[in-house]
Amino acid sequence: MKILVCTSEYYPQGSGIANVAYNVVEKLKEKGITCEVCSPVGPDIKLGSEIKYGRMSLLRFWNKVRKHFKDSGDDYDIVWLHNPLFIGKIPFDNCLVTVHTTPHGQVAEKVYPWHLHVYKKIVSHIDEYCLKKFKKDTYFTAVDPTVLTEMVKLGIPKDHIQYIPNGVDIDLFKVRKKDSLKQELDLPLDKEIILSYGRISDQKRPMELIELFAQISQEINNTILVFAGDGELLPRARKMVETKNLQNIKFLGYIDHKKVAPKLLSASDYYILISKYEGQPLTLLEAMASGLKCIVSDIPNLQMIIDDADCGISLDIQGESVPKQIIEYLESDNMQDGKNARSYAVENFDWEIIADKYLDEFKKRL
């Protein structure tokens, strides 16, 4: 089988899309499947620019893909497309389209600053137009049940969409002895670490998390909240912590995903994510693989995973009792939750399992 993979980002650059495409391709190659990857960084076919400027740069990339393969799109057994945006004619007859996120959900939940609303609405219409350009017999995958639901709302038949979750490297993200890692990362040995890992943006509600932790700290003093990641709200978040003189909050800024993140997750005790909207966050899967107990907002996709794995709590972040609920959970006998998290990640999110799911979908299309 010869597969062409077209993606707007790929390892070592990018994040969610790059992570899925790269890890699945590597597993497929181990199975003897020939894969050629086309992206702005190659490695097999390099198209477009590595510098991104919003939707326009993505549209330019996919236009280059369209032109490059207009006479050779049928040279492959199947083409795997990641969040494609073809304005013109689609050059591939036999393809599987993986959708990682849609602006539809972001617009509905308004998970961005107010001044971007018009831009996001335009982006949403562009994405909807591009998805509907595919032939009626095209099949899709969604990395999250929420994304699947959004695709159905956009007009994609539900029986043409298969849910395949993101994956995690269970050998890289795993349970380790915490004390030595805390010392290495300059984290306090005498406190439990609650980790917020990801981009510090409006969608993640970092200011609300700081306010929430300030209330929790009035009742218990054996925890520290650690932010790992950068983002547009990082300066404002730092200023808020300084103004409130909160001693038990630490900002690490950007951390290396391969070298530092696995150690930081293993050193932590809890993972917290109070987003108002998410696709399927890779950081949650990495936290679970690392054996962390999880505290998340009760948006459906996060709540589904946490409930199914029995590895933490999901909360209505707008509720007045949230600080009390978190304190009760922190003080409860929850050791088993961390073990459950690791077991669930190994059984459901190992890249070997995810690659086999995609391979099954490819074979169905032959």
Structural summary, described in words:
- 42% of the residues lie in helices and 16% in strands.
- It has 366 residues and is α/β, with parallel strands linked by helices.
- The protein has 2 domains: 2-164, Glycogen Phosphorylase B (Rossmann fold); 178-348, Rossmann fold, CATH 3.40.50.
- The chain has 14 helices and 13 strands.
- The strands form 2 sheets. It has a 7-stranded parallel β-sheet.
- The mean pLDDT is 93.
- The protein has helices at 16-30, 54-68, 103-109, 117-132, 145-153, 178-184, 206-217, 234-244, 261-267, 282-289, 300-309, 322-330, 335-348, 351-364, and strands at residues 2-6, 34-39, 45-46, 78-82, 95-99, 139-142, 161-163, 192-197, 223-228, 249-253, 270-273, 293-297, 312-315.
- Strand 12, helix 11 and strand 13 form a beta-alpha-beta unit.
Given the structure, what is the number of helices?
Answer: 14
SS class: alpha/beta
Second-tier CATH architecture of the largest domain: 3-Layer(aba) Sandwich
In percent terms, what proportion of residues is strand? 15-25%
Reading the helices and strands in chain order gives EHEEHEEHHEHEHEHEHEHEHEHEHHH
Order the strands across the largest sheet as they lie in space: 3-2-1-4-5-6-7
Q: How much helix, percentage-wise, in residues?
A: 40-55%
Average pLDDT value? Answer: 93
* CATH topology (fold) name of the largest domain: Rossmann fold
State the CATH class of the largest domain.
Alpha Beta
